[in-house]
Amino acid sequence: MMGKVLFLAAGAAGYVLGARAGRERYEQISSVASRAWGNPKVQQKVGDLEGKATDVAKQAGAAAQEKVGAAAGSVAGTVRSKVGGGSGGSADDGDAGDSGAAPLGEQHHTRMPTD
To answer: Residue 47 burial by CB count (10 A; 0-12/13-18/19+): exposed, middle or buried?
Structure first.
């Protein structure tokens, strides 16, 4: 259904832009388009489509947020295992590698030697 509407709109736009009938024909087409757009049935469909688009956008946003959260958790876990695992323990030691380690936001940074 949406494809047909898009096709008709594109066809009308192409006709208007390519018409050689002059300003009078353009005004005629513009008047018909304005009346069609102002039709309550058309406005009802526009409202329905806006509602559907909003719902789809919310669902896509929620799905993206879940994926980003999962990826961030995975990256944070990898960073923690790399930073906390430097004391000789492996990542499978449970909390043994994290004993005394500061949370990621509170760690001190060391400077690299310069040339």
So the answer is: exposed
Give the integer Cα–Cα distance in Å for 43 and 51: 12
Distance CA 20, CA 26 (A): 9
Threshold 0.90, pTM exceeds: no
Instruction: Give the C-alpha separation, 107 to 83, whole Å.
Output: 10
Compute the CA torsion angle 51, 52, 56, 62 (nearest 10 deg): 40
pLDDT for position 47: 92
107's CB contacts (< 8 A; 6+ apart) are 83, 101
Which residue, chain included where needed, has tokens 């005394």?
Answer: 100
